[in-house]
Amino acid sequence: MSTSVLSVDNLNAWYGAAHILFDVSLNIGRGEVVALMGRNGAGKSTTLKAIMGLIERRSGAVTFEGRDISRLDPFRVARLGLGYVPEDRRIFTELTVNENLDVGRQPSRTWSDGNPAPVWTEERLFALFPNLGAMPDRPGGQMSGGEQQMLTVARTLMGNPLLVLLDEPSEGVAPVIVEQMVNTIVALKQEGLSILLSEQNIHFAEAVCDRAYVLEKGHIRWQGEMQALLADTETQRALLTI
Amino acid sequence: MTIDALLFQALNGLASASSLFLIGVGLSIIFGVSRIVNMAHGSLYMLGIYIAYSCATHIGGAFGFWGGIVISTLLVAAIGAMIEIVLLRRIYRAPELFQLLATFAVVLVVSDLTLWIWGNEDLLGPRAPGMTGAVEILGRRMPTYDIFMMFVGPAVLLVLYWLLARTRFGRLIRAATQDREMVGALGVDQARLFTLVFALGAGLAGLGGALQLPREPANLAIDLNLIGDAFVVVVVGGMGSITGAYLAALIIAEIKALCIALGAQTIFGVSFNFSRLTLVAEFLVMAVVLIVRPYGLMGRAQGLIRTLAIPEEPVRAADAMTKGLAGIVLAVLVVMPLASAYWPYATVLGIDMLIAALFATSLHFIKGPGGMHSFGHAAYFGLGAYGAGLAVKAGGLSTMPALLVVAPLAAFAGAALFGWFCVRLSGVYLAMLTLAFGQIVWSIVYQWETFTGGSNGVVGVWPQGLLADRSIYYWLVLALTVSGVMFLRTVIFAPFGLGLRAVRDNPLRAAAIGLDVRRIQWIAFILAGTVCGVAGGLYAFAKGSISPETIHVGRSIDGIVMVLLGGLQTVSGPVIGGPLFTLLQDTLIRQVSYWRAALGIVILIIVLVFPQGVVGSIAHWRQWLAERARRPA
Amino acid sequence: MSVLEVAGLAKSFGGVKAVDGVTFNVERGEFLALIGPNGAGKSTCFNMINGQLTPDAGDVRLDGRSIARLSPRQIWSAGVGRTFQIAATFASFTVIENVQMALLSHRGEVYRFVGGVGPRHREEAIALLDRVGMADQSYRSSRELAYGDVKRLELAIALANDPKLLLMDEPTAGMATKERNELIALVKRLVVEHGISVLFTEHSMDVVFTFADRIVVLARGRLIAEGDAASIRANKDVQAVYLGTGKVFERKGAARPSGAQAP
Ligand SMILES: Nc1ncnc2c1ncn2[C@@H]1O[C@H](COP(=O)(O)OP(=O)(O)OP(=O)(O)O)[C@@H](O)[C@H]1O
Ligand SMILES: Nc1ncnc2c1ncn2[C@@H]1O[C@H](COP(=O)(O)OP(=O)(O)OP(=O)(O)O)[C@@H](O)[C@H]1O
Ligand SMILES: [Mg+2]
Ligand SMILES: [Mg+2]
User: Fold this and answer.
1) How far is the CA of B392 from the centre of ligand 2 (A)?
2) How far is residue C96 from each of residues C123, C128, C173, measured CA to CA in Å?
3) Is the predicted pLDDT of residue B1 greater than 60, yes or no?
4) Which residue of B555, C21, C60, C228 could cross-link B378, Cys pair, CB 3.0 to 4.6 Å?
């Protein structure tokens, strides 16, 4: 994991006048799955949004595949191969499953070293999420909460991203599907994709993540191997309240 | 009248349906995607006609005419794109409907620009080269061009349908309609998408205008006359459904044709001229459709729409500084008539400004805290004015009871009746039903000459006795305005106001904690209407006469502009917005010849400098400074 | 005696049978979990019990009285509180105003046109917020809350009418493990102390297996199993359609999937 795909240096972010993130720095290597943990309101979602360019007021450097993306519009960031799955799903309720997927479609891309990145099609995604395959023409607004959750992940994958920012994907999804999601993430990882995962479910994080950062009140308080975090009950109690 | 005549009129209706469809469809597309109520849509259409006229007369010949149609379409599309890029793009984060204010300013500017370029005479274009003849149908002659027009509507419909339902561009548009930020996060350049959509909608308006050239003269009144028709088509069809828009255009055009064909008829011994109905036919159709099908003929309930707008802050009671300021302003207002020794006009202008404040506050009450965007608030103003005026003229009442009892009562009755239907809808549908009721009231007043005096209105309604003194009347206006404003303000902070805001924020949640959503909205509607009636009554006695203008949609729009100017999301906004708008309008009309353009430009500047409305922006800055001071970054 | 009786409840959307003849009871003071795969019809059941949707067939009785065709408003006054799967609060309110609104509605004080809201039921609102651990955020604007906090606020709102029955659609989604357990422990305490009955859905099996008195399992709109934690956990059908191997919610069985090597 030598080449770093995404590196964030001293990221600060504000909502209006409220300062939310304080000098957050993190690093993700090619094919690495990294957990971003912390209790409610710690700033996990804000970090992901700020990386994506969805927060107006921010400062600090964000480098993706060697390019500075800290001043780019979200759509340019996405076109470079950064996928974003929001925590509140935000599927297009008037569009069908197929149409939702089509909105996410982007050309296939290659890594900075010239190797092709994984390419996603509807067929592959339906194999991954059979629920979706069973209802390709159902409007998003008429799907259950969990079905929508699967759709939002699938929609982002349609953009053939190199790195995915996943905000609590296991939330509201049945355990069997979470298991599938674990397998999916592992499969994505094997294809060389990197993932930054905001997660509260430590079992889920444990099953897929290599390393973890723990946020508290907008500061990074802990970082290291996932295994070390699992062993460190003191940190878990203090920062994750487990 | 024969069956043949009826059929012939029905065919004629098909041609009108195409024009009507072209008027509405562009608006529908723009609104659907950007949530912008584009008041300038009629202006774009008007530019289409004028540009086509210039092409047809200057270039001349078949190329001048048909090429002119293409040129108008493209040129107007480009103007639309420019409006989006230069103006609207800067204010997408402003609160809902604020963009309406910007497009209204564009209406004013375009109107004077057109006057300046083309003059104020009606310009009749040439007939379409190659289609100057007529075809004999059912023993009557129908112009070839009308037959051509019949097919234009469906053809445009097919192309647009294909574009929106079958192409990726269409899917992106529909997705962006709901959540443009998310579309951006998926790699779509949504800013460009929006510009394209705006250009498309504007281009359609231009096309519609240009095609209309052989059928009606280009004139300066088109812009506002048309916007009502356009909204009706969009809403009756169902937001976002272009097929619905065509269907709506067809139904309305056919009903109008039918009314003309029927002409004067005697039913059960009562003679009635159906052609009079054409004035309100579309609004009647709209009211009926919306009552039966709340989302229009082919529309569906909208899912949650995510806007970029900054959400509303919790309302907080005025702080000491604001209260102090209000006290000073009030003191100045009380002594204002003394100034009339130096400036006689002060009292007259003061009365107008105060009435505007009351009018705007009552509208703000249902728009802001109530979340019900009324486009027909002038109806209650007019009911109050006519109620008071007729009570004096026809009923022989004296000033005070007319003002304090009849005016509010008349408005109360209207608001209770119309409100009952309106609160069954939400969003634009509600807005358009209020517009429809407004138009219906207007046309009744306009046509019921024996009672209301028709277009002449009621004259000689001057206050009696002590109140005949301008200064004393001014103090009465001041007292009533202050009480009205304070009353509505108290309600906003009282449990009922909280309930009203709860219903606006989240009706689902509100119902689940036991709030009666419709009842709360209905009561709010009635309160606002009643207070507005008082403003109308004050207006009647201030002017000494009332005309149907009092109820015209133009006044409703003025009200919206006042509210937005002050700031939708603040409780004190309308108190500033109403007088400010009146002052601007009054000053400019008296000083500048192209006053509309001047007013438009002033509004544009305000829009760009104060994207939350004047009061809203000031409050916003103050809060920002306070928070900065609290935690130094 | 049963507080809630659901009998033969059914609802279709177009051709889709979202709920297809579901029958179960909630006893007084019971903490009943309704679980099942995504799209099983749980939220649809909730929406019918709560009056948001009208059932195609079947009946819902609260304390023996049919509430199946009443409006949400009437059902709230009958003593049913509810939280939504996608948390719903009043975004332009402060946190405390959200709770005050519910209290005002419960007391029948909505139609008061004078007198500010500020002091009304303030102590009570703060007490409710305190119960869900939100008292220190009382005066924040509710739209800027983190998602987990919105969920807790929603619970406080739902508790405002002293409900007999609380319907909670995924109450702990988006919360950290400890807060999750604390919140459910709190709800459980309400069940025990005040005799409130709770019907809830959850995809977090830690919570369900630790706290639920009884579990009802729904799949494709039908009831497929019913029983206590141990029997549900051992049920092969439920494992197949819903629980899977259990590795994502059980520490002990957390075998790493093949392919994910420790770094
Ligand atoms: N739109 C907003 N305006 C102001 N403050 C906000 C806004 N959204 C979030 N916040 C605040 O920012 C902080 C961080 O929120 P964030 O959503 O990033 O937390 P999180 O770690 O993702 O929490 P959760 O696990 O609950 O999703 C919180 O204190 C929250 O109240
Ligand atoms: N308005 C609707 N129109 C059509 N189908 C719908 C509608 N609402 C729900 N459905 C369908 O009904 C089924 C049941 O949905 P429901 O929301 O009850 O599931 P759920 O059990 O709550 O799932 P989850 O755990 O994912 O929230 C789903 O397949 C869903 O797609
Ligand atoms: Mg979050
Ligand atoms: Mg559900």
Assistant:
1) 62
2) 10, 9, 22
3) no
4) B555
- Edge-first strand listing for the sheet containing A211-216: A82-85, A163-167, A194-198, A33-37, A211-216, A219-225
| Phi and psi torsions of A57, nearest 5° | -105, 105
Query: CA end-to-end span of chain A, whole Å?
Result: 30
The DSSP H or E segment spanning C61 is strand C57-62
Q: What is the DSSP string of C110-150?
A: TT--SS-STTTTHHHHHHHHHHTT-GGGTTSBGGGS-HHHH
Burial level of B94, CB count in 10 A (0-12/13-18/19+)? buried
Residue of A183, A186, A152, A163 lying closest to A109 (CA atoms): A163
Nearest CA-CA partner of B537 in B440, B409, B450: B409
pLDDT (0 to 100) of residue B309: 65
Give the mutation candidate from C170, C179, C203, C241 for the A interface (greatest A CB count, under 10 A). C203
At B150-177, the pLDDT tens digits run 999 999 999 999 998 889 999 998 898 8
Q: Indicate which atom in ligand 1 lies nearest the CA of residue A49.
A: 18
Tell me: do B566 and B444 sit in the same domain: yes
In chain A, the residue whose alpha carbon lies closest to the alpha carbon of B304 is A93
> Are B377 and B559 spatial neighbours (Cβ–Cβ below 8 Å)?
yes
Q: Answer yes or no: is pLDDT of A106 > 60.
A: yes
List the end-to-end C-alpha distance of chain B, in Å, as a whole number: 81
CA angle C25, C26, C28 (to 5 degrees): 135
- Identify the bridge partners of residue C2 per DSSP, sorted by sequence position: C27
- Which of the 8 DSSP states describes residue B308? S
Neighbours of C48 (CB within 10 A): 26
pLDDT of residue A2: 52
Q: Whole-angstrom Cα distance, residue A49 to residue A36? A: 13
Q: Across the interface, do C248 and A178 touch by the CB < 8 Å criterion?
A: yes
Q: Dump pLDDT digits (tens) for B281-315.
A: 878 888 888 888 888 888 777 655 666 666 677 77
> Is A93's CB within 8 Å of B303's CB?
yes
Report CA torsion sign: B513, B516, B517, B521.
negative
Overall average pLDDT of the B237-244 stretch: 85
Residues of A in contact with C176 (CB under 8 A): 38-40, 200, 240-242
**Domains of chain C with bracketed CATH:** 2-243 (3.40.50.300)
3-state SS class at B300? coil
Select from A147, A194, A151, A199 the least CA-distant residue to A173: A147
Nearest chain A residue to C245, by CA: A176
Domain tally, chain B:
2
CATH number of A4-94+162-240, picked from 1.10.1740.10, 3.40.50.300, 3.40.640.10, 1.10.10.10: 3.40.50.300
* Ligand 1 contact via A17 beta carbon (within 6 Å): no
A216: contact with C, CB 8 A cutoff: no
Q: Is C88 within 8 Å of B496 when comparing Cβ atoms?
A: no
